[in-house]
Amino acid sequence: MSIAGKARKVTTNTLLEMKRAGEPITMLTAYDYSLARLVDAGGVDVILVGDSASNVMAGNETTVPMTLDHMIYHAQCVVRAVDRALIVVDMPFGTYQGNSRHALESAIRIMKESGAHSVKLEGGSEIVESIQRILTAGIPVMGHLGLTPQSIYKFGTYTVRAREDAEAEKLIADAKLLEGAGCFAIVLEKIPSPLAKRVSEAIAIPTIGIGAGSDVDGQVLVLHDMLGITMDFSPRFLRRYLNLESDIKKAVNAFVDDVRTKDFPNPDEQYE
Ligand code: KIV
Ligand 1, residues 64, 70, 142, 189: which to mutate, most atoms within 8 A of Cβ? Predict the structure, then answer.
C-alpha cells in the first residue's frame, strides 16, 4: 500500500516519507467546515487554510487585509471538519515580519485557538529568524517562495517570478536556508518549472508547487479556483475540475422560477 494510503492521519513525517518514496503530495485550500469536510473525505493529504480566503471568501483584491483573528476563525472551522489531512494555516501579513517574538506570539495564537497542526510563512532570508523562533516552540513551519502574494505591492504584478538568474539563485539559497532552519516543506508559487526542479532536487524536504510545473513533490490549488467558482481568475497553471459557477447560477435561477411560479413548495414539501 502507498504511504498516503496507509496514513490514517497525515503528519509532517508522512510528507517526508512520500517525498523519499517519490509519491506525489496533494494539497488544497479550505476555509469553512462544509467544504473542508468534503476535501478531507476526498483524500487530500494537506489542507491549507490559506490567506487566499481574503480573495475568495472576503472579496478583497489582495491577501494583505487578512488579520490573525480572521485566519484563526477560518482555521477553527476547518479543524472541526478534518479527520485525516494535515492542516496548515497561513500566517497573515503583518503578524511575523516585524520581529521574531511577535511571530512566535502570532503562531502560538493560531495553534492554541484553532487546534491546527502547523503554520505557513511567506519569504526567505528576510524572515528566517521568525521561522527559527516559531520552530523553537515546537510548531511545524511550511515555507513559501517564488510569488509571495503578501508582497504584491513590492512585485507590482502576479507574473512568474525568478526568471532572472539573480532571483533564481536567491530562491535556491532561500530554499536551502528554510530547509536548514527546520521547515517541513516549501510551497513554490509561479516559478519556471526547470527552477522548481532544481530546488526540489537540491533539498530533502518536500516542495509543493502551484504554477511550478510537474517536477516538484506535490501540487496545491485554491479550492474555489479548481471547482470553477472563481471564474475571473484563469492563470495558465489552473486546471478546473468543475464549473460550479454555472451550476450554482442555474440552481439559483431554477429556485427563483419555482417560487415565482408557485411550483415550490409542492404538497410533498410541506407539513399537514
Ligand atoms: O493562500 C493560499 O491559498 C496560498 C496558496 C496559493 C499556496 O498560499
Answer: 189
Q: 252 is written with which cell numbers? A: 439559483
Q: Are residues 236 and 263 in the same domain?
A: no
Range of the domain at 132: 3-241
Mean pLDDT of the chain: 97
Residue 105 appears among annotated catalytic residues? no
Task: Tell me the per-residue pLDDT of 89-110, one tens digit each, with 9 for 90 and over.
Answer: 999 999 999 899 999 999 999 9
Mark whether 225 and 106 lie in a shared domain.
Answer: yes
Question: In terms of domains, do 124 and 254 share one?
Answer: no
Q: Identify whether the C-beta of residue 229 lies closer than 8 Å to the C-beta of residue 56.
A: yes
- Span 223-243, pLDDT tens digits: 999 999 998 889 999 999 999
Give how many domains the chain has, as a whole number. Answer: 2
How many Å is the Cα radius of gyration of the chain? 20
Burial bucket for residue 242 (CB in 10 Å: 0-12, 13-18, 19+):
exposed
Each residue's pLDDT tens digit, 108-141: 999 999 999 999 999 999 999 999 999 999 999 9
- Selecting among 189, 201, 245, 272, the annotated active-site residue is 189
Residues 143 and 235 in one domain: yes
For residues 137 and 258, state if they share a domain: no
- Number of other residues whose CB lies within 10 A of the CB of residue 245: 16
pLDDT over 90 (residue 208): yes
